Amino acid sequence: MEINEEKIDEIVLALLYLNFHGDHGAIRAWKSFDWDAMDRLHNKGFIGDPKIKAKSVLVSEEGQRAAKGLFEKHFGA
Asked: What is the CATH number of domain 5-75?
């Protein structure tokens, strides 16, 4: 089976939205998802570098908007 990585990235970003939390004026999300998907989201500019020692990543403003929109698209009623 061929895997659509773009769809995976959309769902991972949407699920990151579930655990957004504020940290000194920045938005962070726990990084407990597939490392390849997290690397792709970092390369797209949605999140900070997932390879740091912290258990969460910074979420860019663009990433915050995209995550909210994708969450509503895929999981909204």
From this structure: 1.10.10
